[in-house]
Amino acid sequence: MKKKNRKSLALLLSILVGPALAQMATALPAITEQEAHAIGVDAYIYVYSLVTMDVTRKQLTNVEPGKGNLGGPMNAFANAPAFPAADFKAVVRPNFDTLYSSAYLDLTKEPMVVSVPDTGGRYYLLPMLDMWTDVFASPGWRTTGTQAGNFVVVPLGWRPDLRYRLIKEFKLPKGTQRIDAPTPYVWIIGRTKTDGPPDYDAVHKIQVGLKITPLSEWGKSPKPIEVKIDPSVDMKTPRRFRSTRCRPKSTSPTRPNF
Question: How far apart are CA 116 and CA 67, in angstroms?
Fold first, then answer.
């Protein structure tokens, strides 16, 4: 009896709603080839940075510690020991008056604490890029000074109950600054002023002092960095937009002002 009633209800709905749906479908004009092309261009532009940043992340982090110029495991700095060579292509148009320190933060599980040493007045900066390639924070000489410091980088929406007591809750050093990241992955492209090769040793000492610590591990003995090389990652193709699954789109919030 119930089955018969459901069939009757479905038939009644199709009679009542069917004509309206058909009218709506015919009312919507078909898009032109030019409009379809414009939509495709907009979609390409919208996801371009997400895809290229994720390709870059996969390539640069699929490297054992100390084996890559700017590459290494997630949540660890990879420090360039010298000025880049002429064929250096990890970043576009590298400068030749600083030594680079690169790191990708993985905030999918918890915040990360980025620690910097006292640079003794030496210019440095740690611009932090979200997956849209926007710089959302840049600790350094101009913005935070050159004294030793700690910056806790927090993923979007993480533990709102700890918004105003995060530092106290995890016993972080006084003066620790909170930075809210727009996306769960962050690329730090750090630079430290270098007055030529004779100045390398002084800069290396600063680079060694750059640390990244998972928030849950703060105050504990550092654990060895774990790295699992993924042989499926294409390490040879240049970092540009190509056919790939757009997985970062599902983990990166909609870009503001879009």
Answer: 23
